């Protein structure tokens, strides 16, 4: 017969075990909440579709499928007015030059020109005078003039052109913003060719 009294084990670790269980319980709750947020707002984790320039693009370029690409960017990296679908830029004209990888925003694109008469074309020109460009409004009629040069006097390249849209002035460009003009096809070709060689401006009607 065991005459020694039975000693009850001392539960010295009980407070620590209870604290551990509480910590684990709160961690589980936290992970559940995070998972629920990501399930409801999946875009916050992987970003949102954003249209980027696939390579360097010059001002006035007509955007095609190979010029742009989609990438998921976080909300912090997406600028205001950024475009999120490739259809939104297909066939549109750039109002300013962009670098490869730059997100395309609405102000980088010229407004979509309204359907014109058959036999007309839209040509982008950059006016020599910034102040003149500031006076232009869509729908306005203007005459396109080539500025005088030592070997060539000033000359009217086309009369009665319609202003389609006026782009935004780029700080690094000394010339005026890109202006889209709708002209008869033959006149549009002439204006586009000469504007590459001589400064171009417009007179208001």
Short description:
The chain is α+β, with helices and mostly antiparallel strands.
Rg measurement, Å: 32 Å
- Could you report the average pLDDT, rounded to the nearest whole number? 79
Write down the domain tally.
2
Biggest beta sheet summary: 5 strands, antiparallel
Name the assembly state.
Answer: single chain
| Cα shape | elongated
Give the number of DSSP strands.
7
Helix content: 10-25%
Structure description:
This protein has 205 residues and is of the alpha+beta class. The chain folds into 2 domains: 45-108, Alpha-Beta Complex (Type Iii Antifreeze Protein Isoform Hplc 12), CATH 3.90.1210.10; 120-204. The protein has 4 helices and 7 strands, in the order ααβββαβββαβ. It has helices spanning 14-40, 43-46, 130-134, 185-195, and strands at residues 48-53, 68-73, 120-126, 141-146, 155-166, 178-184, 200-204. Strands 3-6-5-4-7 form a 5-stranded antiparallel beta sheet. β4 and β5 form a beta hairpin. The longest helix has 27 residues, at 14-40. The protein starts with 13 loop residues before the first helix and ends with a strand.
What secondary-structure arrangement, pairings included, does this model have?
Blueprint: H1 14-40, H2 43-46, E1 48-53, E2 68-73, E3 120-126, H3 130-134, E4 141-146, E5 155-166, E6 178-184, H4 185-195, E7 200-204
Antiparallel strand pairs: 1-2, 3-6, 4-5, 4-7, 5-6
